[in-house]
Amino acid sequence: MEVRAALLALNGPDVPYRVRNALPAEKADLVAECRIPRVGVTLKTRMLLIPEKHEVRFLDERWENSSSDNASGQYGRGHAPAVYRQWETKQGPDGHRRKVETFRFDTREMTDPLRNAVLGAGWICRGAFKL
After folding, report:
1. Which of 18, 59, 73, 86 has the most CB within a 10 Å radius?
2. What is the C-alpha separation between 119 and 21, in angstroms, rounded?
3. What CA–CA distance (Å, rounded) separates 96 from 43?
């Protein structure tokens, strides 16, 4: 299928995620997965292809590790764009200390190309809470 090929073609060395065929337990056709160890986040988008409707159903999932040793991590699903950042305090040229962003990841860096590939193939995107 054209849409499957378009989604798998997104893989490459310059993208922070990987699109692969889904495992049977994932109840989908394709899965895009992104692990961001620096901030303890794993993103997964499961995609179910419905050829007779030219439609792809998306289920976005997110696991966030807790920053505390005693608390468990958090799980969420559904489209919820987020930006993860890390900051460091550095001394500026004027001698004053200030916060400088050292890491930034926007979840739309993964979800937007997936949706654009589906739309570019002439298919429809639909969010889902269950596949």
Report:
1. 59
2. 20
3. 37
